[in-house]
From TrEMBL:
Residues 279-430 form the Erythromycin biosynthesis protein CIII-like C-terminal domain. This is Activator-dependent family glycosyltransferase. InterPro entries: EryCIII-like_C, EryCIII-like_N, Glycosyl_450act, Glycosyltransferase_28, UDP_glucos_trans. Keywords: Antibiotic biosynthesis, Glycosyltransferase, Transferase. GO terms for biological process: antibiotic biosynthetic process. It comes from the Bacteria. NCBIfam families: glycosyl_450act (TIGR04516).
Length: 461
């Protein structure tokens, strides 16, 4: 069968998909990735075919045009402020309606590259006729293209499923409104995009267009939000991009080695880190450890790193973490997944982009790590104030108490029992045969790749 992956221009989101894409290729399936031009090099470096989709990102709705960043701090934080809300008393119809009005009209449009990416993805899908579209949960060009060409489609998560949780509230509250108050910005947005390609919007398919016919979830089951959707569990397999492993990584450290990474999201997509680099390094300079800090020259600035700190622009976490006693990170899913896969205790200083705070709390509750939230409210704005003493105390506790290591290794054992990308291939083959329909289904049957079958919308049995 033919499988089309769609993802917006964020390496971390694409890297999550690479092991599954290669598992499908190794099983003999045709795979192609459609993504904005900014990500083409990362895809080719991963050895996958790629179709450049569009002319690049639309102007950031929260900032002036001309930014070098695909997505800005303002875009992410304003989206987060809507979608990550969990307090029941706050989730009124007006609140949820406002959250999706902003998300559809600004953020989803911006993060999928606007019309140029949508046009390119749909045009390619109509010509290539994929049997299955696997789309990043923020890249709605994927389900639109699948609907237009009749392919089955599955959403690929990059962390906690806040969108589906909020959509559940949206759908429930919409049905409870008086007919005159049933504004439906999601339906209007989806209908407008489908209409561009002569496809008729069916309100009965709104849920699957927003949350997928199925959802591929690399998040451990104990971390997931309690949602009634068809999820397919997938073991997180680290992929860190094309790199050369330095010799020193393989040498056994003389002191406990701690890795510090703030991830690629801050420095590549959001225009800066959320905490002071100097504060972080000062907090651990007096400890008897070897710190490996993945920082660029721009991030380090004029700060002179202490003697026990090795500053490197990049080191693959999959290679260095087996030598580490702990990792300090921002709570991004890539850093989190790498650390869990290697059974390394975490100290999370969470960002405020999406699910970092919740990941910190969840790991703390499992005794596999600690978290230190540097944020506080100052009026209507989030302000960062990291306590140097608190961070040093947390790291000291993490290194001294063997219980954290034992619990981190227990999580690693649980992950190893989760279906691997190779295990998921026959599941996706069956799923594609069951869910494809329309033009793609007829074309797929004619090519002999998968049998034609009627469109169905229920989840797996």
């Amino acid at each position: 069968m033919r499988v089309l992956f769609t993802v917006y221009a964020a390496k971390t989101h694409f890297y999550n998909m690479v092991p599954l894409a290669w598992a499908l290729r190794a099983a003999g399936h045709e795979v192609c990735v459609a993504t904005p031009p900014e990500l083409v090099a990362a895809v080719t470096n991963a050895g996958l075919p790629v179709v450049p989709a569009g002319d690049g990102p639309e102007p950031d709705p929260d900032h002036a045009t001309g930014s070098d960043h695909v997505t800005s701090t303002g875009t992410w934080q304003s989206l987060t402020a809507g979608m990550t809300e969990t307090r029941p008393e706050e989730l009124t119809w007006d609140y949820v309606l406002g959250a999706f009005t902003v998300a559809c009209s600004l953020h989803y449009e911006h993060m999928t590259g606007g019309r140029s990416m949508l046009d390119a993805v749909v045009e390619f899908a109509q010509r290539w006729r994929p049997d299955l579209v696997i789309w990043d949960a923020m890249t709605f060009a994927g389900p639109v293209a699948a609907q237009v060409c009749g392919a089955a489609h599955a959403r690929f998560l990059f962390g906690l499923d806040y969108i589906a949780r909020m959509y559940g509230d949206y759908h429930r509250l919409l049905e409870a409104q008086h007919p005159q108050r049933r504004d439906d910005p999601i339906g209007d947005w989806l209908a407008g995009r489908l209409d561009r390609f002569g496809a008729v919007y069916d309100p009965a398919l709104q849920r699957e267009l927003m949350t997928g016919q199925w959802t591929i979830d690399p998040t451990p089951e104990w971390m997931r939000l309690p949602l009634d959707l068809p999820y397919v569990a997938l073991r997180y397999v680290p992929y860190n991009g094309m790199t050369v492993v330095p010799d020193w990584v393989r040498r056994r450290p003389e002191r406990p080695r701690v890795c510090l990474t703030l991830g690629m999201t801050g420095r590549e997509n959001l225009g800066g880190d959320l905490v002071s680099i100097g504060e972080l390094l000062d907090a651990i300079a007096s400890l008897d450890i070897e710190l490996v800090a993945t920082l660029t020259a721009d991030q380090l600035g004029s700060y002179e790193a202490p003697d026990n700190v090795r500053v490197v622009d990049f080191v693959p976490l999959n290679e260095i973490l087996p030598t580490c006693s702990a990792i300090i990170h921002h709570g991004g899913f890539g850093s989190l997944g790498n650390a869990m896969a290697h059974g390394v205790p975490h100290l999370i200083v969470p960002g405020r982009y999406w699910d970092e705070v919740d990941f910190g709390r969840l790991l703390d509750s499992r005794g596999a790590g600690l978290y230190l939230d540097p944020y506080r409210m100052a009026g209507d704005a989030l302000k960062s104030k990291l306590s140097v003493e608190a961070l040093r105390e947390k790291l000291t506790e993490l290194l001294a108490d063997p219980g954290y290591l034992g619990n981190a290794r227990q999580i690693r054992s649980e992950l190893r029992s989760t279906p691997s990308p190779n295990d998921l291939v026959p599941v996706l083959e069956e799923f594609a045969a069951k869910h494809h329909g329309g033009a793609s289904g007829a074309a797929g049957a004619a090519r002999g790749r998968i049998p034609a079958s009627p469109h169905v919308s229920e989840g797996p049995s």
